[in-house]
Amino acid sequence: MTANYSYYSLESNVDVIQDTYRMRYLMEDIRITYKRDININVGGIIIDAREGDISSVPRWLAKKLSEYDIIDIQDNDISAYISRALNRERIAKPHDLSGLDPDFYIRVNEHLKELKDIDREKLIVSLNSFLASRLQKIVKLAAASQLSPELEQKLSAEENELYTSIHHSSAVFKQKVLRKFG
Length: 182
Prior knowledge:
Structural class: alpha+beta
Largest sheet: 3 strands, antiparallel
Mean pLDDT: 91
Strand order of the largest sheet: 4-1-5
Strand content: 5-15%
Order of helices and strands: HEEEEHEHHHHH
Low-confidence stretches: 1-5
Shape: elongated
Helix content: 55-70%
Radius of gyration: 21 Å
Number of helices: 7
């Protein structure tokens, strides 16, 4: 017996969502400090700066300039941002989800890329517990009711897609197993 599941659809939708939010994230301006004098033109972006100057450039450009040790990126609050999100979820009631930004997981994954192995492993352990808690809550809520606007505001973009998929699958399942009585 074979079953027709829509896992590929969910996976594909999440991939598209992540790609979209990743692009937005990389296009956001970020504050930088120049470590040395520079005068370049990158993709139509002209940079003429002196050592110590502070400016804003798209995140993708800041990452490239940082690779060449030309600038320091002033985005140190990402660790605190992630920590606050983990703590809010930890202290939330068992049936309540704490709020996340739509691009939360994109920011987390970009931050994980920049961490040293030991720090990355510590954060991944915390994130696994965080994800288990959120998944449990999302499954319970999605099986019981449609996504409300209030709850939608608390979910990341990927979680929103997961919720919709679980709710749909749950509704179909209920309809199929109770077809003679429902």
